[in-house]
Every structure is written in structure tokens, then in C-alpha cells.
């Protein structure tokens, strides 16, 4: 392919709102252009990479028996109403009304439509197992899309669904996808880790996420070299607060200027861990008081898992006063009104010598023995872990990192088959709902995540699997040198005949521009044809990743490339 005829609009400057490294480089190297917030056009060079990723995904899905579908983006809203997801997903869903008044949505995912077709055709346990997948466009009205194609409002997903007649069958399908995802991400050259995602409010079914570490990520994970967990569920090894010898009776004391744990620590010289912080939440409609150690943060996702609902929120100031009689600075578990459920973090189990609010403004209790003085219904792991705490699994200090989710595998169970009545007859003649799994990968995210880790200040460093072209052939001063032109043309045809996809820089631009653009575009190998080397019968080869350069005899070049690539 002649670069002079190929559309690669590289940029020197990128817009200030392009903050993610991957987004900046995709704009600079002419891979994508923005059309609207969260909506991107892929240009020829970028689309070639997308096609390569799709092909890897397709091969690995096919290898586990996946059958490729193409489901429509335009979905009748009624099907989505039957599963309750129009309401549950709310504003994320784009809705369309035809002039005739028919209502559609633009599908953000396809569990409903897969289940609809399964209901039509899967009648017996003998019709399963099935793995159905597609690589298709999704629409999500993401609230504040940033980071370029990492969070688009229109994006491509590989979404797969398993249909089984037994729970063991679901385990097998889940494991197949887990293994396939390793192969896909390994082949793409990604450095990733797997975390168990929060499953509580989703119904307690197993789910895992494949993540890459990146400052452009919106997820937060706790990792060591051999442990990784989403911060929503991560645990750590921390000594419990425990007991002091002195077990005096509780006593109140005035704290007019202490609104926070820090204030208490500073003004009264109380060790932070001897302070119990009370947080009040409204769970569905009921008030809960949650007791945490010192400045530990309550983890809302853990609370959701414990309460079994996502319908919870911190109480407002008015609610605090209504339920406890005090504002947020002086709330505590001792003498709390009936009707408020009190739970506490595991680190406070059996603790005494504690300080906490007295449910009276400007007043605290000391010498609290939680077992003796408070009615704590149960202790749970409720806290968000902190950087540097030791991992329970391997004892190493945990790092807290930002991460991007590449893919998600999820044991759905029978939620959708029950809602849509997708039943099958088992071996005993009984009707049961189909047991399902759902498995997604973001195609553009693979590309963006690769770029998050594989750029330098000059540009992209592609690997063999994803590179848009295999080889960049640079003809230096080609418009001024017949021998450079001839050699390039001959080389191009030899390389293409050998099966390489070659981008041939035949443009009438300076040597400096060629070198800079080649480094920016980042193809793995540059073959540099210049008059000076040709005079000695030589050609220079440069490897983009290592910057290693070698001078090769013209007649050996094909052999050399084949050996190296
Ligand atoms: P996130 O938490 O990042 O919003 P999600 O949990 O909504 O992701 P899923 O619904 O599990 O994602 O979708 C499967 C995959 O689709 C994700 O793992 C991700 O790779 C990709 N994906 C999801 N939302 C987007 C988006 N807005 N833009 C690009 N890719 C996306
Ligand atoms: Mg999302």
C-alpha cells in the first residue's frame, strides 16, 4: 500500500480534553476521529487493527464451539420491559419512537434477544449446551464519556451467551470462556489480571473481570504480584482493635468542637483506632447504623452484598437528627433508638475502651465496651482496604491501582429465562428455565488497552498480532533518487508476494518527517532504503520496539525479515 494514496491524518497537537494516553495516540497517529461525545469514527489504519482483534476473538470463540450470530441493534422495547431492564438501566438506554408510534431501544447488550431466540428454538435438554456469540455494535448513553474509545456511547462488543440444562453445564461453559479469554488477551499481547467482581446485589452468582492496570481506568483494584481483587470486594490482613485491660463504665464527655474522628484524635489525644465512627444509611426505607474503626471508609458495595439490595444511600442530615437525635458529629451505637439496626466492621469485634458519639450534639461516650454497651446485631467485613495493608492470601503489601475492564464473564443463572419464559423439558419430563451465562469483551477497549501500555514519547509500538501493517518500507528522498524508487518497488513486490502487508512510504516529504511518522504509526519493522546505504548494496532495518538497527545486504533482506518476523 502506497502511503501517498492512503489516508493517515497524523496530528502534532491533540485536543486538551484527550487525557487518556491511548486516546491521545489514537488521534495523533490518525487511527480515530471524534464525531460527538463518546462517538468515534475509525479511520483506515485504526479499523485494520479492529479487524485483527475481531479475528483473534472469532478464532478463540469458534475454538470453544461458539456459533456466530448477528443480532439487531434495534430492539422492540416490550422484550426489555419483560425483564425489567428498561427501568433498571434507566438513562443508559437510548430509546427510539417511530413515526407510527412503535417503541424501540438501541440495545446496550443482548441477553434479552438471545433469550427470546432460545425460547423459540430450545425445547429440550437435548438441544443444549449452546454457545451463541456475536461481534456487534452496542449503544449506551454513558453519563460523562471520557477516555476516548475506552468508554464510547457506541462501541463494539463481543458478547457470548451460554445455554445449559444443568448448573454443571454452566460451570463448564464458564470455564471455557475463562480459558478462551486468556488466549485472546495473551494473543493480543496484553498484560492483564483477573478479579472476582462483586456479586452480592447481582444475586450471588459468580462473575470475574479481566482488567489492565492504567491511570485512564475508572475501576480501582487491589493487587500484589499474585493476587488481584476489585476494591469493592478486596480484603486485607489487619489486626482487630481488640481489648484494653481497663474496663471502666462508660462516661460521657463534652466535645463541642469535635465533628470528625480527626478532631477527636487531636483535641482529646485518643488513638484513632479507639474511635468508632458511625455512619447511618437508609437501606430501602430502614435506617441502619454502621460502626467503623477510626477513619476506615465504609465500602458501599460490601454493604449492598450484606443487605442484599442496591437501594441504599447515606442518610440526610434531617434523617440523622430524626433517627438519632444528633447531627453527624455525635452519633453512636450506645443508647441508639429502637428500630435502628446496628452492625459493625469485623475489626471492632469485641472491642472495648472505645469512644463514640452519644447521640447528643457536642457529646461523646468513652470506655465503651461494644459487647457490653451496644446492641450490635452482627459484624461483617465492611471496610475499604488501604494501600500497603497486607494481602490475606500472600502476605505481600497491597497496591491500589486504577484499572480498565477488558472483559467480563458472568454466571447469569435463570434470571432472563425465567422473565421471558425460556423453558426446556428435562430428562424426567419436567419444565425448567434455561441456565445461562453471559460473557463480554470490548473490542475497542482491547485496542485502547494495548496502547495504554505500548507507547513511548515518539508514538505507538505495535506487536505482530495487532499491527495494522507488518512492515513500514521507507523510501528516503524517493522523488529525487531513481535507484531508491526502483529498489523500493522491487522490495515491495517481493515482501507482498511473501505474504507481508507493507505500508510503503513513497511520499515526497523530508527524511525527518518520514522517520517521525514511522515511529508515530509504530509498525514493528521499518525497512529504510536510502541512497547512501544502497551504494554499498545495503539496506537498513529498524525494529520499533527495541530501536535496534541492522545493516543488511539487499539480497538477504527477505530472508532476514522472514527469520525475524
Ligand atoms: P464498565 O464498568 O467499564 O462500564 P460494564 O460492566 O458496563 O463496563 P459490560 O456490560 O460487562 O461492561 O460489557 C462487557 C464489555 O464491554 C466490558 O468488559 C468492556 O470491555 C466493554 N464496554 C462496556 N461499556 C463500554 C463502553 N461504554 N465503551 C467501550 N467498551 C465498553
Ligand atoms: Mg458500564
What does this structure look like?
The chain is globular. The protein is 28% helix and 29% strand. The chain has 565 residues and is α+β, with helices and mostly antiparallel strands. The two termini are 19 Å apart. The strands form eight sheets. Strands 3, 7, 8, 9, 10, 11, 12, 21 and 24 form a nine-stranded mixed beta sheet that branches. A five-stranded mixed beta sheet has the order 16-14-15-17-20, with helices on one face. A five-stranded mixed beta sheet has the order 28-27-29-30-31, sandwiched between helices. Helix 1 (21-28) packs across helix 12. The longest helix is centred in the N-terminal third of the chain and has 21 residues, at 167-187. Residues 109, 140, 142, 151-152, 155, 157, 405-408, 440-442, 444-445 line the site of adenosine-5'-triphosphate (ATP).
Give the key terms:
565 residues; nine-stranded mixed sheet; 16 helices; 31 strands; 28% helix; 29% strand; binds adenosine-5'-triphosphate
Short synopsis of the structure:
The chain is α+β, with helices and mostly antiparallel strands and 565 residues long. Helices cover 28% and strands 29% of the residues.
Amino acid at each position: 500500500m502506497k502511503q501517498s494514496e492512503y489516508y493517515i491524518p497524523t496530528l502534532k497537537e491533540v485536543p486538551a480534553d484527550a487525557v487518556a494516553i491511548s486516546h491521545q495516540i489514537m488521534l495523533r497517529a490518525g487511527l480515530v476521529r471524534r464525531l460527538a461525545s463518546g462517538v468515534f469514527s475509525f479511520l483506515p489504519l485504526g479499523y485494520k487493527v479492529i479487524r485483527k482483534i475481531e479475528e483473534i476473538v472469532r478464532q478463540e470463540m469458534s475454538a470453544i464451539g461458539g456459533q456466530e450470530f448477528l443480532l439487531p441493534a434495534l430492539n422492540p422495547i416490550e422484550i426489555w420491559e419483560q425483564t425489567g431492564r428498561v427501568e433498571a438501566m434507566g438513562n443508559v438506554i437510548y430509546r427510539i419512537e417511530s413515526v407510527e408510534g412503535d417503541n424501540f431501544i438501541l440495545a446496550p447488550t443482548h441477553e434479552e434477544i438471545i433469550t427470546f431466540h432460545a425460547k423459540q428454538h430450545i425445547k429440550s435438554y437435548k438441544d443444549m449446551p449452546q454457545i451463541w456469540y456475536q461481534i456487534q455494535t452496542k449503544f449506551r448513553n454513558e453519563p460523562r464519556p471520557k477516555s476516548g474509545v475506552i468508554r464510547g456511547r457506541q462501541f463494539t462488543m463481543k458478547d457470548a451467551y451460554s445455554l445449559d440444562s444443568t448448573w454443571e453445564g454452566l460451570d463448564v461453559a464458564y470455564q471455557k470462556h475463562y480459558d478462551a479469554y486468556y488466549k485472546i488477551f495473551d494473543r493480543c499481547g496484553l498484560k492483564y489480571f483477573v478479579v472476582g467482581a462483586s456479586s452480592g446485589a447481582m444475586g450471588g452468582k459468580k462473575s470475574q473481570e479481566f482488567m489492565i492496570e492504567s491511570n485512564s481506568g475508572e475501576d480501582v483494584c487491589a493487587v500484589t504480584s499474585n493476587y488481584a481483587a476489585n476494591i469493592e470486594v478486596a480484603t486485607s490482613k489487619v489486626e482487630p482493635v481488640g481489648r484494653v485491660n481497663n474496663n471502666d463504665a462508660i462516661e460521657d464527655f463534652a466535645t463541642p468542637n469535635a465533628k470528625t474522628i480527626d478532631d477527636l484524635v487531636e483535641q482529646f489525644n485518643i488513638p484513632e483506632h479507639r474511635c468508632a465512627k458511625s455512619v447511618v444509611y437508609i437501606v430501602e426505607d430502614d435506617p441502619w447504623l454502621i460502626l467503623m474503626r477510626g477513619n476506615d471508609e465504609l465500602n458501599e458495595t460490601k454493604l449492598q452484598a450484606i443487605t442484599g439490595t442496591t437501594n441504599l444511600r447515606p442518610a440526610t442530615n434531617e434523617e440523622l437528627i430524626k433517627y438519632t437525635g444528633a447531627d453527624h458529629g455525635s452519633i453512636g451505637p450506645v443508647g441508639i433508638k429502637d428500630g435502628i439496626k446496628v452492625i459493625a466492621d469485623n475489626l471492632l469485634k469485641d472491642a472495648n475502651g472505645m469512644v463514640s458519639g452519644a447521640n447528643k450534639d457536642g457529646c461523646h461516650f468513652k470506655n465503651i465496651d461494644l459487647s457490653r454497651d451496644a446492641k450490635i446485631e452482627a459484624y461483617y467485613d465492611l471496610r475499604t482496604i488501604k494501600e500497603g495493608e497486607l494481602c490475606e492470601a500472600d502476605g505481600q503489601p497491597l497496591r491500589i491501582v486504577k484499572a480498565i475492564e477488558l472483559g467480563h464473564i458472568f454466571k447469569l443463572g435463570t434470571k432472563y429465562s425465567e422473565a421471558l419464559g425460556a423453558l426446556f423439558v428435562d430428562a424426567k419430563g419436567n419444565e425448567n428455565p434455561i441456565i445461562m451465562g453471559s460473557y463480554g469483551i470490548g473490542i475497542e477497549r482491547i485496542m485502547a488497552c494495548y496502547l495504554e501500555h505500548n507507547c513511548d514519547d515518539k508514538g505507538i509500538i505495535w506487536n505482530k498480532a495487532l499491527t495494522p501493517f507488518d512492515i513500514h518500507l521507507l523510501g528516503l528522498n524517493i522523488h529525487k533518487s531513481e535507484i531508491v524508487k526502483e529498489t523500493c518497488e522491487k522490495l515491495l513486490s517481493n515482501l507482498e508476494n511473501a505474504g507481508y502487508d507493507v505500508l510503503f512510504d513513497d511520499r515526497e516529504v523530508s527524511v525527518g518527517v518520514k522517520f517521525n511518522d514511522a515511529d508515530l504509526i509504530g509498525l514493528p519493522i521499518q525497512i529504510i532504503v536510502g541512497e547512501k546505504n544502497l551504494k554499498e548494496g545495503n539496506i537498513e532495518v529498524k525494529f520499533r520496539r527495541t530501536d535496534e538497527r541492522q545493516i543488511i545486504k539487499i539480497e538477504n533482506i527477505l530472508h532476514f525479515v522472514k527469520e525475524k518476523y
